[in-house]
């Protein structure tokens, strides 16, 4: 039997991001704010096609866009 996150069509990284967000949102206000600051991502990535680099994107904004797209 596959893992629930895999059966739902999620990657493991996406599953971890969702779980971390759920935990951060369940904390008390003071702890939640500190945890949300630690959860900010400052990573950027670019897709390569045919040996050429595409647009460089911020991982946090790309992740947020993908989450809203999948929530619909």
From TrEMBL:
GO molecular function (one): proton-transporting ATP synthase activity, rotational mechanism
Extent of the signal sequence: none
UniProt xrefs under InterPro entries: ATP_synth_F1_esu_mt (IPR006721), ATP_synth_F1_esu_sf_mt (IPR036742)
A Pfam family per the record: ATP-synt_Eps
GO biological process: one example: proton motive force-driven mitochondrial ATP synthesis
One term under GO cellular component: mitochondrial inner membrane
SUPFAM superfamilies (UniProt xref): Epsilon subunit of mitochondrial F1F0-ATP synthase
Family in the record: Belongs to the eukaryotic ATPase epsilon family.
Name this polypeptide is given: Mitochondrial ATP synthase epsilon chain domain-containing protein
Species for this entry: Drechmeria coniospora
